Amino acid sequence: MAYSGKVFEWIPISVVYSLLKDIGKSLTGRRRSNSQRLELRQKWKPQFEARLSETYRKGLRKDVIIRDLKRLDEYPESRDTKGISPWFRLGLVDVSHRGILVMLRHETLTKYKDGEHWRFTNHSAGERGDIRVVLLGSIPYDCINSVDWDGDEYYDFPHIYCMFAHKKEPYEHLGFYTATSPLPPDTLPIYHELASYEEVRRFSRKSKLWFADS
After folding, report:
1. I want to staple 26 with a disulfide (CB 3.0 to 4.6 A). Which of 11, 31, 77, 196 is the partner?
2. What is the rounded CA–CA span in Å between residue 110 and residue 102?
3. Does residue 150 belong to any structural domain of this protein?
4. 186: closest CA among 79, 14, 56?
5. Is residue 22 in some structural domain?
6. Which domain holds residue 138?
7. Residue pair 108/129 in contact by the 8 Å Cβ criterion
């Protein structure tokens, strides 16, 4: 049977688009198979655990550089762009079975008027806040492509190359956490989530705080 070389002409454009879209999603880490996800978790979890243990045991800095794999060459100079930067420095503070936890900033929260939920503290109104917390971002192992543990000539901290696959950010989840202070010098603190970032922002909006969308 002879073929004219035009065997694919009959495929609808919508089908081709759908196939390309699925391939794109798989490349961003959103559609990895369970076996691929498990492989990545088994690969990265012990490495980050070892790094954290060494960091606390030796009193080293917790800094890491988060790099967007898609914008690899926008470092160390990055173009003016909307949204999240192609690279930034954060603190590696914990690991879980799903990924790593990085510290974005320290914060204070204030109880919402229902006495149950939390909102941002209005410092401009003289509020001191009810509790001190840290904002942590969870980066899944699925989205980590590689790590340069020694850094480079600009920053000699680990460089973590990620796919920014969650709304163009590396974080699967953002939350406000409290931390227990370690007793022995080489013991890692334990972080407990108090509230998600979205929840705090929502109740801050209800309190008519202008910075609730920050």
Report:
1. 31
2. 23
3. yes
4. 56
5. no
6. 34-206
7. yes
Query: What is the tens place of the pLDDT at every residue in 126-169?
Result: 999 999 999 999 999 999 999 999 999 999 999 999 999 999 99
Tokens of 128: 């001191």
Query: Which 3 state secondary structure label does DSSP give 19?
Result: helix
Total domains present in the chain: 1
Torsions phi, psi for 176 (to 5 deg): -100, 130
pLDDT of the residue at 79: 78
Integer CA distances (angstroms), 148 to 22, 28, 65, 128, in order? 30, 20, 10, 41
Asked if residue 51 is part of any domain, the answer here is yes
CA atoms within 13 A on the CB side of 46: 4
- Percent pLDDT > 70 in the chain is 81
Those residues of the chain that have pLDDT short of 70 are 1-30, 182-183, 185-186, 212-214
Provide the pairing of β-strand 131-140 with 99-111: antiparallel
For residue 59, is it within any domain?
A: yes
Tokens (6 digits) for 99: 């990924």
